[in-house]
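S1.2 Input.
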Amino acid sequence: MLGQHKRDFTVVPYQYGWKDLYRREADLLHSTLGGKALRIEHIGSTAIPGMVAKPIIDIMVAVVSLAVAAELIPVVGSLGYEYKPHDTIPERVYFAKERSPEYRTHHLNLTALGSGFWIDQLAFRDYLRAHDESAAEYVDLKKHIAERYAQTHQLDREAKSEFVARVLELAVKES
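S1.3 Output.
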């Protein structure tokens, strides 16, 4: 199962096929972007074995700078990604890919190698991959948020951001 309606916030059990879907998309990005893609990483919940997730593949591509990322907007657009210029995260250039209008399958983040965004995304993913107890806590939190959102239609982003901040603090202490 891959894809979710934009106005939906449901989580599904981990799917082993997500890893292959990431690899196929990463191969496409690598062959299209060539040497401008310094590294390509699978991030987000679909990159953490056993994690419940929105069935959307999150990908992060490292480039030399955000200026290079901006130059790549038309190239990435030719792959079916829609550029999202009103993103609120300043260290990335953000895109979404849709299977049909309103039904997203991929999120793509172009960011400078070594940026805070790059470091935080990898630290969060790697910490949850290595710490089953924290991963289980995140599963519970995501299920709670999805249930609450379904009832109230108000996504509780603060609950998730507090957890993320705590995990990043633990990851920094561990490194």
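S1.4 Remarks. Strands lie at 4-5, 39-43, 57-63, 81-83, 93-100, 103-112.
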